[in-house]
Each structure stands twice: as structure tokens, then as C-alpha cells.
Amino acid sequence: MSAPSLLFDAPGPKARMRHRILTVLGLGLAALIAWLVIDKMNDAGQLEADLWKPFVTDGELWKEYLLQGLVNTLKAAALSVVFAGIFGIVFGLGRLSSNLVVRFVAGTIVEFFRSVPVLLMMIFLFFGYFGPHEFPSSSTSSLAAVVVALTLYNGSVIAELVRSGVYSLPKGQGEAGLSVGLTDGQTLRSVLLPQALTAMLPALISQFVVILKDTALGVQITYPDLLNTASQIGSRYSNTVPAYVVIGLVFVLLNYVLTVVASWVERTLKSKGRTAGPILSTVPNIVQGDANPGEPTVHGLERVGESFDSFTERARREPD
Amino acid sequence: MGDVFENYDIIGAFWVTIQLSALGALGALVIGTIVAVMRVSPVQVLRILGAAYVNIFRNTPLTLLMFFSIAGMAFILGLMLSDDLSTNAYRWAVIALAVYHAGFVAEALRSGVNTIPAGQAEAARAIGLTFGQSMREVLLPQAFRGAIAPLGSTLIALIKNTTVAAVILGTSNPEAAGMLQVITENEGASLPTFGLFAIGFVILTLPLGVLFTRLSQQLAVKR
Fold this sequence. Notes:
The complex is a heterodimer. Chain A is mainly α.
């Protein structure tokens, strides 16, 4: 948040006046939005205490619905995180392999799953295979579809993270590994990968937020996740709007905590300096997408040439 | 394979996807720019409002926004955007897409502002430019150029996220994911059909990715 101090001079009397007017306008805007929401909710009778009371007083609502849904959401997210991590490391290393065929196959798979929407995979897996064949069982087929789809997509994103993490390390690290007699693979595994994983940790945690949010896509294939319980609570207690609001808050809270953890890890890693590479900063999270501000989007192998080019360019220009 | 094309309007489904993407992107850009300006403004209240918007909508699943727009906003609060149910769902889907991605657009633009070294703003003030002039002539051009790459990623994500609209659009005039669901439920699983839809999205997103990468490199401010 250094932006304001960067963009603006210290305000003089006129500017302070203007800021005060804008402050009032801002507060007015906030009040207007709040009033509109409350008025609309009130008109529809959504603010009546009866509708909100179950969330405070009714233990059954929590036990039967909310916690059940939360557990299912966390279960799907946790399984996807583990599998996506494994997938990501395997295919990330595949993309870094010295074998051309392995590199090509891994690259194709990663690029493919990165550009196909998660929901498309989920729908196809569930309605095409897992649902009709009741795989692995009739009650877990939707969970399986959610986990597989999330693993394929997020695993591919993590594979890209692994790759860019290794590329961002100084060249000397790999050279040092080779010069003490390690093979290519050994250098990758015992010198580069540990440092790359450390560097990408914050971005990795941010990816968990994506996974957690994406589990909500499971509603389309009848997975009983947290979002699904919103409609159940809505029909059981006839309080649809409060149910969605409460569950939205739960999601925001969970993800916000994860985001805070990610930036804390980023700060800690930066101050400890346990990796030779730059810390990959936290990626803001988009369902099924990744935006990485301040850095060009990585596409295919362009990244290799580009990062080295800019590196040499910078070195050349530094003297003047 | 030909049967699938004959019996189902796959091109039409992708046309819906493209429409959702275009309208959603337009809305997200407008809302996102406003939120970004609020986030970098010198007024604390506006900054807090902008940050609240970003934190709330970036951390809420898009699926939840879609459901809430129909089940909550339209049916219970009575905010119908059209008498026709499917048109109503379509318009709410565009709004949900715009509102959700606006948070990411705002962050992309803000990161663009953050790429500008402090010296640029100071230099602009030092040669006597007013605030408006320094914004127009010095800061905003650099900010937009710095934001191209993350804006491109956001657009690509938005195109893929239009599939989430499947949860509310129904099957009368579905977008791509809804269409795949209809076909798979009726005809059973077929890898070629899935491949067709997957390739459709690759065609929609891959050129954009290449374009934005190239643009961001060409327009990058050399420092």
C-alpha cells in the first residue's frame, strides 16, 4: 500500500478540503449501498429475526448441515491439494527433464489441462464416467470427480510454479551441483527443487485458496459441499438469503485467513533468505485461472529465453 | 462425431460463451477500474471501501455468486432483470461474472501502478505538472502498460469461468459446459466430444495468451 504516498504530494489546505469532501462522499456511498441492501431485504422480509435465529440457536443446523458441508468441502480440498502437489512436482520435473520426449509430453499435458475449464472436466468425468459407473462407489463418485478435476487443473498450475521456481534460481546453483559431481537428476532433486519449493511456497498457498473456492463447483455434479448446504438450509428453514450470506461469509473468512498466511510466509521467507532465488510473490486467485501481477504471463517455453534475455540485458545496462 | 454437430447446437453454445465473456469482461473492466482508482486514492475511506470490495469478491466462490444472484436476488428479493426466466438468468450471469472479476481487474491495475518507481511521480511534480497532468501524461500510461500481463490472465480466466454460468443457465440455451453436460447425459461419455469442447476453449484462450504476452513484452516500460 505504498501507492498513495508514491502518487500524491503531501496535501495542502485545498487538497485536505477536497479529501474531506471525498471522505464524506465515500461514507455517503457506503451508507447508500448499505441502505439499499437493507431496504431491499426488509421489503422482502429477509431481515426478520426468525430467519437468522437458526444460525445462532439451532445446534442441529450446524451439526446436520453447515459442519457436514464444511467437512465435505475441506475433504475435497485437502485431497485435491495432496494429489495436485504430487502431480505438480512430477510434471514440473518432467518439464525440466533433459529428455526431449519426456519434456514434450509433460509440457503438452500441463498446457492442455491449464487451458480447459475445471467445470468442463468435472461435468465430463461425473456424467460420463464416475456417475453412471458408480466409481469408486455410488456415494463417492461425485467426490472422485471433484478431486480428479481439481487435481488435473491445479496440478498443472503447480507444475508451472515448480518450473518457474527452478528457472528463477541463479544459474550458479545448478552449476555448483554439477561441478561437485552430481548428475543432472541429482542436481535437480537435491539442489534446485528444495530451493524452488521454498521460493514458491507463498504462491503455492495462494493456489490452495483457488482449490478451496473451486470445490464449490461440485454443486453442479451434486457433491454435498458447503455451498450445497446453503440450498438445503434454505429449503429446510425457508431462509435462502440468510443461508447464502452466512455461507459466503464462511468462504470469505477461510480464504482470507489462507491469504494472510500466504503473505506472512512470503515475508518470513524473504527475511530468512533460505533460498537463492527470488520469492515468487503470492498470486491473486481466480477460480480456474492464475494472474500474476507484475510479471508476464508464462506461455510455453517462451519463459526460458525471456528470463535469460532480460537477465543479460539488465546486467549490460547497469553500468550507465 | 458429425451426429453430435447435427443434433446439438455446439457452435451456438460457444457463441453464448463468447457473449458471456465479452459482456462480463466489459463490466469487469468498468467496475474494476473504479475500484482500482478508489484503492489508490488519497482518501482513506475510499481506500477501505475498495479493499473491502476486492477482499470480499475475490474470496467468494463464483459459483456462490451465481446461485445467490438467482436464488436470492432474483427469486426472493424480486430483482428480475427480464420477464423471461432464461434471459433473466443470462443477465444475472453476466453481472456475477463482472462483479467477481472486477476484483481481479482492480488488483491487476493496482499492481500496474505499483510497478512505477516513486521517482516518476516525484519527477512529474518537480517539473510542475498538476496532479491531473502527471496522472494523464506520466503515471497512468505506465500503469496500464505494466498491467497488461495480469489483465490478460484475468481475461483468460474469465473466459474459462463463463462455464460456471452453467449452474444457473439451464439447458434451454446453454453455454459450452452446459451443452457438454446435456450431450454426455444423453449420449454417454465420449472422449472425442470432450476433446472437441476442450479444443474450443484452447482456441478461445491460447491466441489471447500469446497476444497478451507479446503485448506486455512490446509495451513493457524499459527501466
